[in-house]
Amino acid sequence: MSEILLSPPAKPGIRRLSSISATLEDIALGPSIVVPPEHMAKPSDAHETAAAMEMAKCRLKERANREDHVTPPTPRETLVTDQYAFAFDIDGVLLRGGKPIPQAVEAMKVLNGQNEYGVKVPYIFVTNGGGKTEQERCLDLSRQLELEISPGQFICGHTPMREMAQKYGTVLVVGGEGEKCRTVAEGYGFRDVVTPGDIIKDNKDTTPFRKLTADEKEHSRLRNFGEVEIEAIFVFADSRDWAGDQQIILDLLMSKGGRLGTRSETFDEGPPIYFSHNDIVWSASHSLTRMGMGALRMSLEALYKGLTGKDLVSTAFGKPQIGTFQFATRLLQQWRKDTHGIDAPPQMVYFVGDTPESDIRGTNEFNGSEVCENQWYSILVRTGVFQEGTKPAFAPNATVDNVLEAVKYGIQREVDKTLKLRVQQLSEQQEAIAEES
Fold first, then answer.
1. Tens digit of pLDDT for each residue in 302-311?
2. If we measure between CA atoms, which residue out of 415, 398, 406, 372 comes closest to residue 87?
3. Do the strands 192-194 and 232-235 form a parallel or antiparallel pair, or are they unpaired?
4. Mean confidence (pLDDT) of the chain
5. How far apart are CA 265 and CA 262, in angstroms?
6. How much of the chain, in percent, has pLDDT values that exceed 70?
7. In 287-417, at which residue ranges do the beta strands (DSSP E only) sit?
8. Cβ–Cβ contacts within 10 Å for residue 430, how many?
9. Fewer C-beta neighbours within 10 Å, C or N terminus of the chain?
10. Residue-level pLDDT at 72
11. Chain centroid offset of residue 47 CA
12. CB count, 10 Å around CB of 322?
C-alpha cells in the first residue's frame, strides 16, 4: 500500500502517500501529501502546512471552474502563523544538481516549528523549472528533502498556463524529456496537444539533421499536418534539441494561420508563442551556470528578426512575470481564509531566491506594483546563480549565505517587528493613563 489514512484524518479527504512507493497515478486520484516512510504512522511538523496548502489550491481550482464561491470550512485551531509566509525558488536555493544544499533540510525544520520561538511558518515553492507536473515535482522534492510536501505547495513556471487551456484548440508543446510536457499540458486540460515529434513523424524532412529515436517513433502520434491548424505554441520546458525545435517553431510563426507548409507574406498570421519562464541561465550541477529557456527565446527573437525583419511578439510566464506572483498571492490568500478565516493574503511574504534577474527582480517589481495587496521581501542567497564578488543586476532587500540563514533572518525580523509594536502600544497606553490622571 502506498497510502495511509489518518484516524481521525487531520484534513478530511487528504490522502498520505509514501514517497517511496507513491506514483503519479496515486497523486492524480485526489488531494494528497507525499510523506517520507518514517512519518507515515504519525504526521510530522510539516504536515499541517502541506495539508492546508493542498486544500487551498484545490479550492482555487474549484473557484476557477464555478461562478459561485465555494463556502470555506470553519477554521481549525492552528499553531501556524498567518502574519507572514515564505516562498522559495528550488534550484540553487534548496537543491543543486538534484541534491539538497546542506542547510536546506534544517531550514525546513526551522519553518515547521523547530526554532527558539516555537512558531510554525507557512511556505510554498515557486520555480521556473518546467517539464514536470506539480505532482512529479512534489514526489521528487519530498524524497530529496525527506519532508512531507503536497502538490498544492508548488507553483511552476507553466502552472498559470492551465488557465489558457480552454482558449485554444490544437497547440504545439515544446521542451522536456520524452512525452512529459504533453502529459503536463493534457493534465492542465488542453484538448489537442502536438509535439515536435508528431510533426517530424509526419514529415521527416522537417528537420534535416534530427531523426526520431525508436522510442520517439513509438510514442509520437501520426497525423496529417497539412490539414491541422495549430493555434498556439507553448514552450513548457527547456528544449532538448534547439535546432529542430527552433526550425518547427519558426515554420509556425511564419505560417498562414498555423498551418505547416505555408508561408505568410506579411509574417503576422502565425500563432502566438508562450514561454513558461525567461531565465537566461540557471544553476545546475556544473560549476558554471547553464543556458536556460530565456536563451532559447533570445535565439528565436534574433532568428525571427533576421528572417522577417520584424520583432517577435511573445509572452513569458514564471519569474519575474507579475502573473506568477499574483497566482502565489491568491494561493496564500485562500490558505489564510481556510485556516484563519481571514480573506486576505499574509501581510508579508519573504521570497528566497538565487537569481537576481528573475527571483529578486520579480519580487521587487511585484512588491512595487499596483496589483500587490501585501508586502513581498526579497532575500538573495549565495548558493546558486549569484556569486560573491559580483554586483547583482537587481538589488535584494537582504543577502545571506544560504537558505537556513534566510529563514532565520525572516523569522527574527518578524519577531523584532512584533516586539517593537508591543513596546509602542505599551508606551501609548501609559501616555493615555498619564493624561487621564
1. 999 999 999 9
2. 406
3. unpaired
4. 89
5. 10
6. 93
7. 290-291, 315-316, 348-353, 375-381, 398-400
8. 10
9. C
10. 53
11. 20
12. 14
